[in-house]
Amino acid sequence: MSLDDIIYEPQIIVLGVLGNRNKITEDELQDNALTLILQELGRMPDRVLIPSEGNSSIFIQEWAESLHIKTQVFQADWARNGRIAQIIRDDRIQKECTHSLVFLSPKSNKPDKLAEKMAKKGKTVFTLSSNNQTLEVLCSELEQPKASKPARKSDKGKVQTLLKYQKKEEC
């Protein structure tokens, strides 16, 4: 096998933004989050997924468009989905992104749990603290399946012989 036979697949980076922040300036967001994310990634993302609410979404969209990065704004359909509209929108962003920026909240630990859950699934997650000062990177390798783990919950690791497929002995 020569070097010409090797096929390289480009790594696509889709940055999903989860949550939003109204009390943040454009400079704070760029200095404390976006610039550091670019340094960590080593290159520009191919696409940025943004929720439609919050000043932070406006600033991120302007930043991405100034760097010629494709953006996609996700709307929450409050009229159709009611109280779960935000959850449905965020699930769509989670499924499409490879990396994410999660805005943490001082009032709730749901964004913390969401960030940990995404990191366990193998995604790189950047979290911005509620005071807009600390950017933290969470990443986890995908868990390897354990060989000793039973295939089913009721399975005790022992395989039973199926009687109906055994040959009957004739007397």
Question: What do you see in this structure?
Answer:
- The chain contains 5 helices and 6 strands.
- The chain has helices at 26-41, 55-66, 78-81, 85-96, 110-120, and strands spanning 14-18, 47-51, 70-74, 99-103, 124-128, 135-138.
- The model is unreliable at 142-148 and 157-166 (pLDDT under 50).
- It has 171 residues and is α/β, with parallel strands linked by helices.
- The chain has a 6-stranded mixed sheet, sandwiched between helices.
- The radius of gyration is 23 Å and the shape is globular.
- It has a single domain (11-138), classed as 3-Layer(aba) Sandwich (Rossmann fold), CATH 3.40.50.
- It starts with 13 loop residues before the first strand and ends in a 33-residue tail after the last strand.
Essential attributes:
6 strands, alpha/beta, 171 residues, Rossmann fold, 6-stranded mixed sheet, 17% strand
In short, what is this structure?
This protein has five helices and six strands; from the N terminus they run βαβαβααβαββ. The protein has 171 residues and is an alpha/beta fold. It has a six-stranded mixed sheet with strand order 3-2-1-4-5-6, with helices on both faces.
Write the H/E string, N to C.
Answer: EHEHEHHEHEE
Helix fraction bin: 25-40%
- The helix/strand class is alpha/beta
User: Main sheet?
Assistant: 6 strands, mixed
Spans of at least 5 consecutive residues with low confidence: 142-148, 157-166
Strand segment tally: 6
Strand order of the largest sheet: 3-2-1-4-5-6
Number of helices: 5
How many domains, in number, for the residues?
Answer: 1
Cα separation of the termini = 61 Å
Task: Report the average pLDDT across residues.
Answer: 83
**Shape-level CATH architecture:** 3-Layer(aba) Sandwich
Anisotropy-based shape: globular
- Per the CATH scheme, the topology name is Rossmann fold
Radius of gyration over all CA atoms, rounded: 23 Å
Q: Which class in CATH terms?
A: Alpha Beta
Estimate the strand proportion. Answer: 15-25%
